[in-house]
Amino acid sequence: MYNLTTWIAFLTFFAATTTQAALLKTKDPSAICNNGQQATFMVSKSKSSNWFIYFEGGGVAASPDSYRKRKKRHKQPASGKNYGLNYSIVKDFKKKKFNVVVIPYCTSDLHQGSHSHQIDGKKVYFHGRKIIEDVFKRLDSEFKSAGELIFAGYSAGAIGLGFNADVIKKYKNPKLIVDSFWLDKESRRVGKDGPKVLGRK
């Protein structure tokens, strides 16, 4: 039989060597989802100094009508203790012992808005940029000291990488993995519609 001291030592060792994952809330009061609730983001840490940051995709609200058609889950904070960790690319980087950050997409604005609109009598927040700024501020020291720093995104997340290039470029030698940046049908439509996109001023 193991005595109490042995079990405590084992549990301490297990806690120290197990990857820690947490769904965190943004702190900036303006870093909020379409519905006005504080946004969330996933951080899954390892013992590595390497970081992988994933911008989630999921379409765009190019008009009030397209916003109405978006699913409720695309307008509110992500939930679940393992949110985003099942994306194939995220799992690949976890296997490589990277620290991982998943930034859920709850603003319908390609991760780049900073204002609001009235839709059906309700104030709708397009604050994707505010969320990005909050996450980057929270993890700034880790990103600055990273061995490897890799950003990726798909669909709206891929376009969001471009809109947030100014905050990405301040780090040393960042790398990008961009899925369908300007090639998909949605991107071409957004480019054509330009100012009609709700996420732009």
Structure notes:
With 201 residues, this protein is α/β, with parallel strands linked by helices. The chain has one domain: Rossmann fold (3-Layer(aba) Sandwich). The chain has helices at 4-17, 64-69, 88-95, 128-138, 140-144, 156-163, 165-168, 185-193; strands at 20-25, 40-45, 51-55, 99-103, 115-119, 122-126, 149-154, 175-179. A hairpin with a 2-residue loop joins β5 (115-119) and β6. Mean pLDDT is 86; it is low at 8-18 and 194-201.
Question: Which keywords apply here?
Answer:
201 residues, alpha/beta, Rossmann fold, two-stranded antiparallel sheet, 8 helices, globular, disordered C terminus
Layout of secondary structure:
Blueprint: H1 4-17, E1 20-25, E2 40-45, E3 51-55, H2 64-69, H3 88-95, E4 99-103, E5 115-119, E6 122-126, H4 128-138, H5 140-144, E7 149-154, H6 156-163, H7 165-168, E8 175-179, H8 185-193
Parallel strand pairs: 3-4, 3-7, 7-8
Antiparallel strand pairs: 1-2, 2-4, 5-6
Strand adjacency order, main sheet:
1-2-4-3-7-8
Total domains: 1
- Kindly report the average pLDDT value: 86
Class by SSE composition = alpha/beta
Strand content: 15-25%
Helix content: 25-40%
Q: What's the gist of this structure?
A:
With 201 residues, the chain is of the alpha/beta class.
